[in-house]
Write a structure and sequence with these properties.
The chain is α/β, with parallel strands linked by helices and 833 residues long. The chain has two domains: 82-96 and 132-483 and 819-825, Rossmann fold (3-Layer(aba) Sandwich); 488-811, Glycogen Phosphorylase B (Rossmann fold, 3-Layer(aba) Sandwich), CATH 3.40.50.2000. It has 34 helices and 23 strands. The strands form five sheets. It has a ten-stranded mixed β-sheet. Helix 12 (345-357) runs antiparallel to helix 13 (362-372). The relative contact order is 0.09. It comes from Pseudoxanthobacter soli DSM 19599. Residues 1-26 are annotated as: Disordered. This is Alpha-1,4 glucan phosphorylase. It holds the Pfam family Phosphorylase. It is an enzyme of class 2 (transferase).
Length: 833
């Protein structure tokens, strides 16, 4: 079933530019009147009884009205121009808070501030009331958010498609040093930015059987009869581009049961069981990344991925057929970008629709698919390239498995003509026969896409040599590079207004439209007066972060200390463990020589560990245990502080990043696809300490090797070391400092009363150091001392810091999206300025 109101769809997608009352005023008086109107007639409060949350909702709705005027105009222009649309499918969209995002892009921040001041309301206070949209976890979701904003900024007609998670990932608390997970309640007070579309509903099927119906003597049509149906209900959020010139749509799907309850069960007294089917159905859109440690968890993940991919395809095909009437023109008017493997079941779904519903010949349908899809790979980790057990897929998606088998058979027939070797054919097969018959989704995405892109130069090169080596021999031109970028509107102009003001004073307002002009800042890098202004902005940001640390953790930090920051998802390859082991070594050195003139340092960690990732959660515990010991030791005399800020999200990042002096990008070389945190931190003047991994390689090329701290093994050396063995005992024995650190952790110095608490961490270092923490430790420790020494030479430090900002213009997501548009999607762009 698809329920849609044509009138409502026309209003959104084809007609009037103007709202019923005409374009809304954007002066302070008009906004003040509208805010009061929303407070009274939407929120139902008076100025006397209104809380900060009430004022936030009223303000958001008044701002949203001004967005809608532009939204309808943008959509109408897309239809009138018969423009090709980009559809960005992603399981995550980490959009964060939207009030200031929208105000800044509409250039209404100061106007709304003035409007609220006339009502005795503080805009900055309202900012803190807005919850973060819990629609993502880390870099993948934040990249999707940056890309959506850049597509709007460059006037590319686009839809983002994902899931409207009721609770997102989880809210992280730290109790006695251990991560605790709680439901994220970001929707508990509603979401004033979204538009529910109850008229846009699609029935999504699962399970059942496939019937072969003969349509002629030679042809058979396959009809899928699902055993279960879930309704996908649309919710739209506007994505505003810079200057408000163009507005796109983020459409998220919520799962709804076709029947709210089993009335018969309810009437016979089974009041809980009457809702059981509904709870199972609606669990699809409850939580991001449910644990897949159990078969039930695996099934829920697959259901999530098919649910949103199928609904998105149905929606975009409806829109396309309404405008053009023929599925054969799909590649000319539609570009679908798969953000990682999560949405790539859409490939099979589109084949099913084209072949089974529209009755296209197989070869023609496959050609349409290959000219429509493109795929972004985000990881070289084999375990992160999704694969699904065949029995699970056969049970949930029986027709799709048939299609996958046929895709694979035809693919292997073609591959056999290139290389008949059995091992080669096994490596390029969509079906992995070595692991209990599983469908390799990365392989499927590669075959079905016209372009496959990596997200940094190193990552793309390694894709050709590792995970997709054999595919690269079959399609040597298919893999291309599109280095990631970040939106400067969020991560500089909004997050760091002090630095933004300084940049405008030095270069002029043109830099806000043309980030490549940041290079003009280089001329000020050695100017002592400018350095003082630059340092003052940084110190103010550090004071603000210090206040957050004190409020949340009760730890006082010195804003004149070196703020050493690692903010990432907690994962062994990102090597928070290396960081905390070096911290222990520094702590030991300070205690051994307390009178030495040490560089004061504040170590800041933040990030979430997956709920089922026990080793990562143990690393969080170690960080907190070390912090407890170090921060309470009077012999350190404030030369070292260690803090772990809980519940890392976009809003917390906006406070941490402008305050960072040193940016930790220390993943095992060859394992980080790109990184975007490294870009945000360097853009805000932090110097990077890191391996030659991901986009660190390109950052070094742009900022210069003298303005970045590189250490450790290269990707080639990592590969060679692993071939020799990953036993870490030799490296530990060869390093007196590391030996002392390992002994301290193992003996219970940081876990009194529970000496074996960190046994699993230490045992892995000694016998299975796959991430080569021990191999890189000495190089990392020495490079940290270089960073500490440079910090003491303020002129040299601020010169490098300014040069980092000056040379980060290339890492704008506008540049990334312009490259996607020209080289992959074949759509025009309009530069921001």
């Amino acid at each position: 079933m698809t329920v849609e109101s044509p009138a409502n769809q026309e209003h959104l997608e084809t007609v009037s530019v103007e709202s019923p009352g005409g374009p809304r005023g954007e002066d302070a008086a008009s906004l003040r009147a509208d805010i009061l109107d929303k407070l009274t007639y939407y929120v139902g409060k008076s100025t006397i009884t209104a809380s900060d949350r009430d004022w936030f909702v009223a303000t958001a709705l008044a701002v949203r009205d001004r967005v809608v005027d532009r939204w309808i105009a943008s959509t109408r222009a897309t239809y009138e121009n018969n423009a090709k649309r980009v559809y960005y499918l992603s399981l995550e969209f980490l959009i964060g808070r939207l009030l200031f995002d929208n105000l800044n892009n509409l250039e209404l921040t100061e106007t709304v501030r003035e409007a609220l001041q006339g009502l005795d309301v503080d805009l900055d206070r309202l900012r803190k009331v807005e919850p973060d949209a819990a629609l993502g976890n880390g870099g993948l979701g934040r990249l999707a958010a940056c890309f959506m904003e850049s597509m709007a900024t460059l006037s590319i007609p686009a839809y983002g498609y994902g899931i409207r998670y009721d609770h997102g990932l989880f809210r992280q608390a730290v109790k006695n040093g251990w991560q605790q997970e709680y439901p994220e309640d970001w929707l508990s007070f509603g979401n004033p930015w979204e538009f529910e579309r109850p008229e846009v509903v699609y029935d999504i099927g699962f399970g059942g059987s496939v019937e072969a119906v003969a349509t002629s003597e030679a042809l058979v049509k396959h009809v899928w009869h699902p055993a279960e149906t879930v309704e996908a209900v649309a919710y739209d959020t506007t994505i505003v581009g810079w200057h408000g010139r163009h507005v796109n749509t983020l459409r998220l799907w919520s799962a709804r049961a076709t029947d709210p309850l089993i009335l018969e069960a309810f009437n016979r007294g089974d009041h809980v069981g009457a809702f059981a089917a509904r709870m199972k159905t609606e669990s699809i859109s409850k939580i991001l990344y449910p644990s897949d440690e159990t078969p039930e968890g695996q099934e829920l993940r697959l259901r999530q991925e098919y649910f949103f991919a199928a609904a998105s395809l149905r929606d975009l095909l409806r829109r396309h057929l309404k405008a053009y009437g023929d599925v054969r023109t799909l590649p000319d008017k539609v570009a679908i970008q798969l953000n990682d493997t999560h949405p790539c079941i859409a490939i099979v779904e589109l084949m099913r629709i084209l072949v089974d519903t529209h009755e296209l010949p197989w070869e023609e349908a496959w050609d349409i698919v290959q000219r429509t899809f493109s795929y972004t790979n985000h990881t070289l980790l084999p375990e992160a390239l999704e694969s699904w057990p065949i029995p699970l897929m056969e049970r949930l998606l029986p027709r799709h498995v048939q299609i996958i088998y046929l895709i694979n058979a035809l693919h292997l027939d073609a591959a056999r003509r290139v290389n008949p070797d059995g091992s080669f054919l096994s490596s390029v097969s969509v079906i992995d026969e070595q692991a209990g018959r599983r469908v390799r989704m990365g392989h499927l995405a590669f075959m079905a896409s016209h372009h496959v892109n990596g997200v940094s130069a190193l990552h793309t090169d390694l894709m050709k040599k590792t995970v997709f080596r054999d595919f690269h021999t079959l399609w040597p031109g298919k893999i291309v590079n599109k280095t990631n970028g970040v939106t400067f509107r969020r991560w500089l102009y909004q997050a760091n207004p002090g630095l933004t003001k300084l940049l405008v004073e030095a270069i002029g307002p043109k830099v806000l439209d043309h980030p490549e002009l940041l290079t003009e800042l280089s001329q000020f890098s050695g100017d002592a007066a400018f350095q003082d202004k630059f340092a003052a902005v940084k110190r103010a940001n550090k004071v603000a972060l210090g206040k957050i640390i004190r409020e949340q953790l009760g730890v006082a930090v010195d804003p004149d200390a070196l703020f050493d920051i690692q903010i990432k998802r907690i994962h062994e390859y990102k090597r928070q463990l290396l960081n905390i082991l070096e911290t222990i070594a520094l702590y030991d050195a300070i205690r051994a020589q307390p009178m030495r003139d040490w560089t004061p340092r504040v170590k800041v960690f933040a990030g979430k560990a997956a709920a089922s990732y026990h080793q990562a959660k143990l690393i969080i515990k170690l960080i907190n245990d070390v912090a407890k010991v170090v921060n309470s030791d009077p012999t350190v005399r404030n030369k070292l502080k260690v803090v772990f800020l809980p519940n890392y999200n976009v809003s917390l990042a906006e406070s941490i990043i402008p305050a960072a002096d040193l940016s930790e990008q220390i993943s095992t070389a060859g394992m980080e696809a790109s990184g975007t945190g490294n870009m945000k931190l360097a853009l805000n003047g932090a110097l990077t300490i890191g391996t030659l991994d991901g986009a660190n390689v390109e950052i070094r090329e742009h900022v210069g090797p003298e303005n970045i701290f590189i250490f450790g093994l290269t990707a080639e050396e990592v590969e060679a070391r692993r071939r020799e063995g990953i036993d870490g005992r030799g490296a530990i024995a060869a390093s007196p400092q590391l030996s002392e650190v390992v002994d301290a952790v193992e003996s219970g110095v940081f876990s009194p009363g529970e000496n074996n608490r960190f046994h699993n961490l230490i045992n892995a270092l000694r016998h299975h150091d796959y991430f080569l923490v021990t191999a890189d430790f000495d190089s990392y420790y020495a490079t940290q001392r270089k960073a500490g020494s440079m910090w003491r030479d303020k002129a040299a430090w601020w010169r490098s810091s300014i040069l980092n900002v000056a040379n980060m213009g290339w890492f704008s997501s506008d540049r990334s999206i312009a490259e996607y548009a020209e080289e992959i999607w074949n759509v025009p762009v309009k530069p921001a300025g």
